């Protein structure tokens, strides 16, 4: 069904939006978050997409092999966004929705098992999902609060999933083509090694590739974090200021993190600004804990 909904009668963005709503049960707000867009824009997009499918005499029957392969990239993007919403949910009080991640992995695994759709980028996406899922139990503490990577207990990581990720990534790299999923899987791989052994220079190199392959605010912020790990917080702040993402929650959260060892006052200001911008109650709780921790430091 997902291939049927991803009909070229619509733009790729409209295909993905419709698939996320019809097949994945996403609300308009959740789709807007996935695209970093406004709900009203998504509503109009969905209305046009449905109308286009009706005009195109939408069919749910079997597709020709060429049709399946031509729609694969959009299907993968849909599954990628489905997994992302589960991995870092922006709705409600739940930070991780394992049900969404499991469904995205199940569907991607089906693609990997089908000779018609078992492309290198499918293997790379599956590797990425395995690596990210391997750290679920370490990402939240007993109170359901976020545990940052550097504070995670590697003993809680799922080694079986990491091994599966390694298997799929090796398969994905057997050809010459490199997709965004290959690069993100490489970054995720380094996050399955103990924090003290992570090679941040390698991660920065991968982010430099990713930001050229497909720019996004999230990629730019993550690249800046890696840059600070390699060159120091002051250098990271210089890079961050180039982004000019003043209306972005994660921009201010990053600045709060970078300022923490340099100026607790400025760090607190940016964390408070991040709280004002955040739409996620669970995210707000995490940011408030950072503010409280800094208040304790300055007392």
UniProtKB/TrEMBL annotation:
Pfam families: DUF6596. Signal peptide: none annotated. Gene3D superfamilies: Winged helix-like DNA-binding domain superfamily/Winged helix DNA-binding domain. It comes from the Bacteria. InterPro entries: DUF6596, RNA_pol_sigma_r3/r4-like, WH-like_DNA-bd_sf. Residues 71-172 form the DUF6596 domain. PANTHER family: BLL6612 PROTEIN, BLL6612 PROTEIN-RELATED. This is RNA polymerase sigma-70 factor, ECF subfamily. It comes from Dyadobacter soli. The lineage of its organism: Bacteria, Pseudomonadati, Bacteroidota, Cytophagia, Cytophagales.
